[in-house]
Amino acid sequence: MNKTYARVFAYIVGLIIQSVGLSLIIRSDFGTGPWDGFYVGISNHSGLTVGSWLFVVGILLVFFNSYLIKSKPNFISLITIFIMGLCMDCCLYLLDFEPDQAEMQVLTFWAGLLLTSIGMSLYVQGKFAITPADQLMYALSHRFRLSLMWSKTLTDMGALMLAFLLHGPIGFGTIIYTFLCGPFIQFFIPKFERFFTQKT
């Protein structure tokens, strides 16, 4: 497989899988990640969809990140959030259900977390622009000389506070997502890297 085609395939398919996973987490009503909770919360208080707010907030973050690191805005990252926003709106429309039993909520959440981790691990193989929310972590680290761990914690805490104030779907699943999504991604990334290295 041509290396460029493999990267494009990984990028697009990864974003689609991630969008399906995030949509399942939202539908589980068990708790979402901080940023997704923020998007859902602000969507519930407006006429715009979750995907639309993902894109709007992403545009604002592109300029804010540019200000933090004192460089030109990275508009390429808007492609990533445009695809994600569109896919999430489609997935939330198609996955229009609410699990009414605790077992189904937990099962839906874990299926969503697994798919989200796989999708994120796959889309980064494309080596295109990361999302503005992820770029914010690097911008804070660069501007204030913080470790990436502290920058990630600060950005997630900020999004979590906004989600809480907007009555977003924050719950027990939020804790699980916060502590396990990273390790899951670390588990899957090397496997995808080996696969695409062999295929190109």
UniProtKB/TrEMBL annotation:
It holds the Pfam family DUF6198. It comes from the Bacteria. Coiled coil: none annotated. The chain crosses the membrane at residues 7-26, 46-68, 75-95, 107-124, 144-164, 170-189. The keyword Lipoprotein does not apply. Keywords: Membrane, Transmembrane, Transmembrane helix. PANTHER family: INTEGRAL MEMBRANE PROTEIN, INTEGRAL MEMBRANE PROTEIN-RELATED. This is Membrane protein YczE. It comes from Thermoflavimicrobium dichotomicum.
